[in-house]
Write a structure and sequence with these properties.
This protein has 294 residues and is mostly helical. It is 75% helix and 0% strand.
């Protein structure tokens, strides 16, 4: 039996190691989150020293905000294409770069490098590429689709944002897939090869089922980054032209800080949090079922 003195000694030891981290987590994450929920029930404008409770009026305003739901629908479209393309390209790169290719370490570092560039800097770099480099090549090579900047076309600007996002994140997901591929047992692959299974069969029947944990992590991260995109969106297109690339995070920011309607903006942020949490939980739940079946 553990004595009372022993219990206090164990508790003191645990608080010694976990206390600073727990304190930082509560003060930086939990308290601001709860305070943000409180602000959704107020009419605070973001700068005033006084505020009053307005009940659920801010949440009613969220459901009446057509621009919010329009930007959310656009974000869903953006998330779908970026998640699919990022993970497809990342897995293909990882698969190729685990086959003993000469200089594959250099290629891995090169593909991972864009992830180290900040979103604002990355947006300005690609803004220059779309507005100058690609237009120059398109005009001199008589490529009609590149002869004018994509960022000025409401239809093409969306795909420009998708391209930049995929270029930035594919290398990071590639590293996770490489870790998963290197964990596939070689003896299983050799046994399947001896039994006559070709490369496609080994990939489909053996590699992919064993890679489900890596897919869960990468899809989760891709979803999170897709829904929370702001810096690249701001630097590359600023939500234009004609709000054709205004993602939901940018709309929430403008509602709270530019329109000075912080209560509604915070309510929109909380609604967005709930929807993203629901989507990611469903993704993890169904992915875990595949992992068990695999």
């Amino acid at each position: 039996m553990i004595t009372e003195k022993g219990v206090w000694n164990r508790l003191r030891t645990r608080l010694l190691f976990t206390g600073p981290t727990l304190f930082a987590f509560i003060t930086v994450m939990i308290i601001p989150f709860l305070y943000g929920i409180y602000l959704t029930f107020t009419n605070w404008d973001g700068i005033s020293t006084t505020l009053s409770l307005v009940g659920i009026q801010n949440y009613l305003a969220v459901f009446k905000d057509i621009e919010f739901w329009k930007s959310f629908g656009l974000t869903l479209k953006y998330v779908f294409y970026t998640v699919v393309l990022i993970n497809a390209i990342a897995f293909m790169l990882a698969y190729v770069l685990t086959k003993g290719l000469k200089g594959q370490s250099i290629f891995r570092a090169g593909f991972f490098l864009p992830n180290l560039v900040g979103g604002i800097v990355l947006g300005f770099i690609w803004q220059f590429i779309f507005n100058n480099v690609l237009v120059y090549l398109g005009q001199h090579a008589s490529i009609q689709s590149l002869s004018t900047t994509w960022l000025a076309d409401p239809d093409k600007a969306f795909w420009a944002l998708v391209i930049v996002t995929v270029w930035q994140n594919a290398g990071y997901m590639m590293v996770i897939y490489i870790a998963g591929l290197t964990g596939v047992p070689n003896d299983i692959m050799e046994a399947a090869s001896i039994d006559g299974a070709n490369s496609w069969t080994r990939l489909r029947k053996m590699v992919l089922p064993l890679m489900v944990p890596s897919f869960i992590v990468c899809i989760f991260l891709s979803l999170q980054r897709g829904f929370m995109v702001y810096d690249v969106n701001l630097a590359l297109t600023k939500g234009g032209p004609f709000s054709s690339t205004q993602m939901v995070s940018m709309h929430v920011y403008e509602k709270a800080f530019l329109s000075r309607d912080y209560g509604v903006g915070q309510a929109e942020a909380f609604v967005l949090f709930l929807m993203v949490a629901l989507i990611t939980l469903l993704q993890v739940y169904f992915s875990k079922k595949l992992e068990v079946e695999a």
